[in-house]
Amino acid sequence: MSESGTPGPRDPQTAAAATPAGPGASPGSADAAVLRHLKPSGRVPAPAVPEPAVVDPVFSCRNVSVFYGAKEALKGVTLDVGRRQVLAMIGPSGCGKSTFLRCLNRMNDTIAGARVSGTILLDGQDIQDPSQDAAQLRARIGMVFQKPNPFPKSIYDNVAYGPRIHGMSRSRSQLDDIVCTSLQRAGLWDEVKDRLTTPGTGLSGGQQQRLCIARTIAVQPEVILMDEPCSALDPVATARIEDLIDELRESYAIVIVTHSMQQAARVSQRTAYFHLGELIEVGETDRVFTNPRHRLTEDYITGRFG
Amino acid sequence: MSRRALRTFYNLLALSLSGLATAIGLFFLGAILWTLIKNGVGGMSLSVFTAMTPPPGSSGGLLNAIYGSVVMTLIGILIGGPVGMLAGTYLAEYGRTSRLSMVVRFVNDVLLSAPSIIIGLFVYELLVVRMGHFSALAGAVALAIIAIPVTVRTTEDMLNLVPQGMKDASTAMGAYPWRTITSVIYPAARSGIVTGLLLAIARISGETAPLLFTALNNQFWSSNLGAPMANLPVVIFQFALSPYPNWQQLAWSGALLITLSILVLSVAARVVVSSLAQGGKR
Question: Which of A150, A165, A212 sits opposite B179 (nearest CB)?
Answer without folding.
Answer: A165
